[in-house]
Amino acid sequence: MSKLLQEKMTFGDDDDDGKEEKMTEAQIKMATLPESSKLRYLSKSEEWPVLQCHNIFVLPGVPQFFESKIKALAEYLSSDHIEKSEVFKVVLSIGETSIVNILNQVVSEHPHVSFGSYPFVGHPQYKTVVTLEGKAIDDGTVGGAIGD
């Protein structure tokens, strides 16, 4: 991001002599992004990208910039460019500790599926919620994990 800022902006003095200065430490820190993030140019006419961290898109707070980005994001999300995923929740009537060994075996057999196991608090019948998430692909990756 700092490289993009350097390309887009001139950090010169007020007389705009075109002389570039190095970015300050504070500017570099503000332009530092999480490793898992991506800069998305959502349309060909965009000058500035939108930051995406997993399934979260960070949009500008200035209303006129927000409006243009939200329109471009809506088009992007309805297109085939976005990676689809499947998410399932399985609610169990047994405690989380009762399924640890079985769940660990299923996790090892399905490396392309993300699993979560959470105690269900405050309900007499439901004790554990297991979540499964993976890319939506035709081979039934996530569905196969549920069957196991």
Walk me through what this model shows:
The protein is α+β, with helices and mostly antiparallel strands. 30% of the residues lie in helices and 22% in strands. It contains five helices and six strands, in the order H-H-E-E-E-H-E-H-E-E-H. The protein starts with a helix and ends with a helix.
Strand content: 15-25%
The overall strand count is 6
First CA to last CA: what distance?
A: 43 Å
Tell me, briefly, the overall form.
elongated
Indicate the low-confidence ranges by residue numbers.
none
- SSE order, as H and E? HHEEEHEHEEH
**Structural class, from secondary structure content?**
alpha+beta
Rg (CA only):
23 Å
User: How is the largest sheet built, in terms of strand order?
Assistant: 1-2-3
Mean residue pLDDT: 80
How many helices in DSSP terms? 5
What does the main sheet amount to?
3 strands, antiparallel
Approximate helicity band = 25-40%
Short description:
Helices cover 30% and strands 22% of the residues. The chain has five helices and six strands. Strand 2 (50-53) and strand 3 form a beta hairpin.
